[in-house]
Design a protein that fits this description.
- It is a single chain.
- The protein is of the alpha/beta class.
- Helices cover 32% and strands 28% of the residues.
- The chain contains 11 helices and 17 strands.
- The strands form 3 sheets. It has a 10-stranded mixed β-sheet, sandwiched between helices.
- Helix 8 packs across helix 9.
- The longest helix has 19 residues.
- The two termini are 25 Å apart.
- 44% of the residues are buried.
- The model has no long low-confidence stretch (mean pLDDT 88).
- Bound molecules: zinc ion (ZN).
- Zinc ion binds next to loops.
- The site of zinc ion has 3 residues, from loops.
Length: 366
């Protein structure tokens, strides 16, 4: 906490208990900030996510703490009305801490959620694609992965983003790779520098930028998720050894096995987060490159509020009583479907047969 008011960074580490790098990185940065009195304005608030799981060295005790962050459920958990798992107790603690932080903020709030992966991998950022979170995420020299929050229901980053704050999740690398700590600490240094919360110590921020740029060299700047390989324990899913995030894959390539046999990649692209641990619901993801032009176009369309006329598109219609949602008849709208609606700032809410429901993200504009 600095004397002068300014932005607040809320950084969460180890919301998955088998990811110690996040909380270790935060401890380093906090120590250094305190020792050298680096903070010149605003507040840096560090939180450790799943404490019992961190102690046990497992992703979670009963269920994933980085899921089920939805408005109504969290309200009931925070009032103590709903306690279904060890994680609900942690969810309540975390939400209470976040509420205190938001209340005490003396400027805009930015959430950083720090993660690592089971497979060998390099750093990248994910966020609920509001323009303000996107603009902030683009200040880090790491690839941006769009659309992951649509695949994962109720993540912390999505929840905080929908409250109107800037919220970005970062993957730092493999769980126990010492470079992951360095990468995640670099993320926090760059955030502090970007928000002008520390003296412009050019060497620190510059070193952090070099570290991340070196560890992400050769990866496209912007990518989007095209496929999620969802799994359950009965699938007995096993990745074949040696795969890593951002490795190019081609349609039909066999990369894993499960109870039914071989598992093939459904489309060309890059592999993301192949699962090399027992717990987890995502076997792997496939992402593809997005050209920066499309992001600029989508920003322009959203600033123009082009989404207001999205219901003029063939096959798209309004839903009575839901001003922010649209329904899409996929039989009619097949040729443009979700991609155009993404550009306009909508996200997928549900799909049943040929009926797709999308909604506009709250607090989209900067
Ligand atoms: Zn994680």
């Amino acid at each position: 906490m600095a004397d002068a008011a300014g932005p607040m960074i809320v950084a969460v580490g180890s919301i998955h208990g088998n990811e110690p790098a996040g909380s270790t990185a935060l401890a380093f940065v906090m120590d250094e900030c305190e020792r050298d009195r680096l903070l010149v304005r605003g507040d840096l608030f560090a939180l450790v996510g799943n404490l019992p799981a961190l102690e046990a060295g497992s992703r979670f005790i009963d269920e994933d703490l980085n899921r089920r962050w939805s408005g109504q459920r969290i309200e009931r958990v925070s009032r103590g009305e709903l306690m279904e798992s060890a994680e609900d107790a942690e969810r309540k603690n975390l939400f209470d801490c976040l509420s205190v932080a938001f209340r005490e903020a003396r400027g805009p709030v930015v959430l950083l959620d720090l993660h690592t992966t089971s497979g060998d991998g390099r750093p990248f950022a994910v966020f609920a694609d509001t323009l303000r979170s996107r603009n902030f995420a683009r200040r880090f020299p790491v690839p941006l992965v769009l659309g992951l929050e649509e695949q994962l229901e109720g993540t912390l980053v999505d929840f905080i983003g929908l409250l109107g704050h800037v919220a970005v999740g970062f993957e730092g690398g493999q769980h126990l790779d010492p470079r992951s700590v360095d990468n995640l600490a670099s993320v926090v240094w760059i955030a502090l520098d970007a928000l002008q919360m520390v003296e412009p110590r050019r060497r620190d921020a510059a070193r952090a930028r070099t570290t991340l740029a070196e560890h992400t060299r050769g990866i496209p700047e912007i990518l989007e998720v095209t496929y999620r390989h969802a799994i359950s324990p009965t699938d007995e899913f096993r990745m074949r050894p040696g795969y890593r995030s951002f490795e190019p894959v081609v349609r039909g390539q066999i990369i894993a096995d499960d109870a039914k046999g071989k598992v093939a990649v459904p489309s060309d692209g890059f592999l993301l987060m192949p699962l090399y641990q027992k717990q987890g619901d995502d076997g792997f993801f496939v992402v593809r490159r997005v050209w920066a032009f499309w992001l600029a176009l989508s920003a322009a369309l959203r600033v123009l509020k082009a989404g207001r006329v999205a219901h003029w598109l063939p096959g798209v219609s309004r839903i009575e009583g839901e001003p922010h949602a649209l329904q899409v008849d996929l039989q009619v709208a097949r040729w443009y479907s979700l991609e155009v609606l993404h550009l306009l700032g909508f996200r997928k809410r549900s799909r049943e047969g040929n009926r797709l429901v999308v909604e506009r993200r709250a607090h989209d504009l900067p």
